[in-house]
Amino acid sequence: MNISPGDRAELLGRARAVLDANWRGSFTVPALRQYPYQWSWDSAFIAVGYSRFDQHRAEEELRALFAAQWSDGRVPHIVFHEADAAAPYFPGPAFWQIERSPHAPASHHSTGIVQPPVHATAVLHTYRHAPDQPRALAYVSELFPKLCAWHDFLYRERDPHGEGLVYICHPWESGQDNSPLWDPVLTRMALRPEQIPPYQRADTRAVDPAERPLDADYDCYIFLVDFFRQRNYDEGRIYREGCPFLVQDVLFNTLLCRAEQDMAELAELIGADPEPFKARAARTASAIDAKLWDESRRLYVDYDLAARMPVPVPALAGFTPLFAGIPDAARAERMLAYLGSPAFGLSTGEERSGFPASSYDRFAPDYSPRRYWRGPVWIQMNWLLMHGLQAYGYDEHASALRSAIIDLPRVGDFREYFNPETGAGYGAEVFSWTAALLIDVLYGEQTV
Fold it and tell me: Above 50 in pLDDT, residue 347?
């Protein structure tokens, strides 16, 4: 897409203003009203944007996150920096009770679960675009052992069968909180009222409830948090004692595979051995390709470990293995035939309407253009797929996603997610990763 210098400068200025508004001195909140703390995968994408114009902030973003890393290596999905007990956010530190675990940091409040491992990819991105390369190399050396411990945690604690695939144990760990992917699992849980701890939602105060998860879904989310804290966040106990949510998620494993590939490059930069990372990435890629591919649906699908069956749901995440170069050329071509259809809005011909790429098949019976992960466009998903398609040579489709990343903030402002039919913005306002990834795209990057 061509954009005039004046429009580019105006958009960059607005995007930087979003990040400035959400910067808290050493990290960036996703959105002050809805998400007033530090989120794990948000910070990785935010660092990607900062790397284009502010090396200091790019580096500080992940330093602040990894300062709260647990001693077992896990990187928590939220860090409650300077948490205010009176703040309306829920669930906050008092509910998570991470002090039950011997691995939790004494110096930071956090959650006890994780989010997708995009961090090594962000560190490599920051290094590649740093104007001060010696300083950036020192930063890589500083973060490298922390990244190693993070990935080791996932493979050690979340791959019980040694498949090269890790599981998630909560929808929030996927980053796709209320995706239709989780409907079969949450429905199977069939909770009784006495199993759900008392709680009061806070997520619908700043956002229209019509755009948020249903109360029944939230009951499951809270039940799972209580399940974890009752077991002191001991991963072995959580698995052995019947956690009902154990899912080998396509997006999570794809990002782990790509992160291992990027770890190999980081290792070479600092003189470490890249081969273990290459081997682990190859093993995960092979496992994704063998176990999660659904030939009839032309995309990758999650696997429910608890029920021992695939989760055949047509979510956009099923195409993200393109970002890690996992499918071969023939399989990628089959994926593109579905991804490039009106079902996800990435059509490049006359049949194209609206904005790509909807997070869920538009022709599925429970599709919604405005309810969180059940249809809306997410900028970070477009960013991942843009780079994946570019790597496979699908330049026209990659360009369509790039155009959407630029156009959606112009139409719907810097919102959390967008209506794929109209471009209207929904969810949190003044949203950081929307601004950060727009900045990255506007700087004209072609490869990650």
Answer: yes
